[in-house]
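Re: that chain you flagged

S.,

Sorry for the slow reply, it's been a week of failed gels. I finally had a moment to sit down with the sequence you sent. For the record, here it is as I used it:
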Amino acid sequence: MNSDLPLDDQPSGAGLIPVPDGAGAEMGEPFETPAATALLFLQALAEDVHEYRNALLRITTPESWDAWGDFTEAAEMVASLGGEWGIQSRGSLPEPGIAYIALMRDTPTALYVDGDVFINAAAIVSLVHRPALGGWRVHSYGADYWPPDDLPRDLA
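Prediction finished late last night. Pasting the structure tokens below so you have them in one place:
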């Protein structure tokens, strides 16, 4: 507790909270929600990128395909986290059609944020809503947020 702040302005102290067992479905279905799309992407990277290459191409934006290459580098980033990682069940939505999902190391569960807290993420998945492609798609994965002005958008 910070004695310099009024009681109503005190942080909850909770920060990142595990999603209760059985509540993972609240993340929604892939392509319908950013979190479910990011989770599908990360799970494919954690498996065999060569076997799942076609799925990874479907999950990502066509504009990003050249940057992904064969997805080996992205898979190595996931592998470097070890076997225990978790993602936010609700990401940051800075503007319509843009979402960022934080990936945390040593957290084998889905998480949600209780209040405004600083998240020291191991990686960020930047997604865009692309109705013409059928929903949410991953545009980048890495240490930084992809700037909204640099993300592709559907014009319709």
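What I noticed first: The domain at 29-150 is CATH 3.10.450 (Nuclear Transport Factor 2; Chain: A,).

Talk soon,
D.
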